[in-house]
Amino acid sequence: MNSSNAAGNFDLDHAYLRATVAAPLTAAMAQLAILQPEDPVEFLGNYLLKFVANELEAQRVVELKRGQQRTNASAPGTQQQQLHSGSNAAGKAAQDAQNELEQMLAQERKLQLQLQSERSVPQLFQRFLEWLCPVLSAEEAYIGRRCASPDNVELVHWVASSRANSVTLDKFVSEEHGVTFDVFKEVGDSAAAVDGDGNPLPPAVPKYVHVENVLREPRVKFFHVPKLGAYLTKGLQYHSFLHADVFNDASPETPNIKEDWLVVSLDTMGQARPFTQREVDAFQRCCAMLAQSVEELERALYMTDFERKTTNDDALLHEFHVAYAAQVAVQEENLVLQLQSLPEDEKNAKELELRAAFMTYLLATHAPTLAMASPRVVPFKRPVLLTFAAALGLLGHPRQALFNPVTKSPSWEKMAPLLEESTLKACLEAFPAASPPPVADAKLALGEASKGDVEAASPIAFCFYLWVQAVIAHRESLDALAELAREQEAAAAAAGEGESDE
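The chain above was modelled as a monomer; its predicted structure follows.
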């Protein structure tokens, strides 16, 4: 009897679970197989908890509607009164929507004024994201730059986030694996658009991409545990002034402007909801505002660099370059005199040691002039950046403080603060010129930069180039002498063993 009751209870439990849990659990397991999260248990738990929350909310809405219907049915009044009431409700809803829109537009105008007050692009990004995320009720907002890997693979590198310690920062998505790249895809049109003169216009790109359920889109790349929610992203094309080729030597008053791309993205992961149309519309307006603000700020920063370069720096650095070269030439003459009394087999090593020590002293002496590079915002050309990276690496700065983690190229944005006078002078004065650190990375970086290219591009970088060369030569000389000493010691030990055997 007891066994039959137990079997009956089991059947009832089985039927209940099948009716209530089977469908969401099957869907969750399917998403688990597709996404393969790091923590499957947490993923399933979050999925089922959100399913329960959605079901409870749906039941609440149904009960609310039923209650309203019962109230309307029992209330006295004619059909005309009911119609009048409905008309008033519709009018109130329209007025509420208009008020909400006006409030949002007022907030956007305040944001525009705030963006105009920023004096650096990273700070502008941060201000924008910290405003956008709460206003649109998002979990996280982030900005990426379109770039390429060392293998020339198209990437979007996430460079800013509304979260201070976001796992998204310095991550990337590739064209092959990321839904984000859909913002760059050209939209086909059977009737090609033309301008007023009948010339074909460039193909359009999507206004935005809205993935309403990220768990159903296998091309969404997650940098943390996947959660139910939406992903909204938009590509922004703008005129960039902060690139290495912006200065136009042939026509200094006309900068070389480059078409560049930013990507702005939002998500509601964990909220289990798509973005509303009101939020999407506000997102598009704010993105247009950001593109305009970035372009205006980059133009202003370029103009500051251009004016400083043409009115002061170029002439001053030309004089400095001549004086520096003269000091180096005098030292080379002094080296010849200092080495005359030394035995021939010691001259080369001593010459390299003295040259490295003098070049280190010379850089430290001229640190105020060398630091003139630091305030510049426009990036230098690649040979100059490689030279700075080689020098700063020898001075003890780690690679991650010098190079872009995604493109693997030297980053002027990272290196510029390291060339400030106080930082630079302290590093040079602490540099062990008599016994320099390993030089393999510096040698590799300098191998891509020719002496002529560096000298033509930047007198400051040329000073570092000469110093790096001197340090590399001295370190390699010390390594060669140490290797020779080890070989001689090994030979002597072998000879001693041979004599003992006899």
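The CA atoms of residues 9 and 15 lie 10 Å apart.
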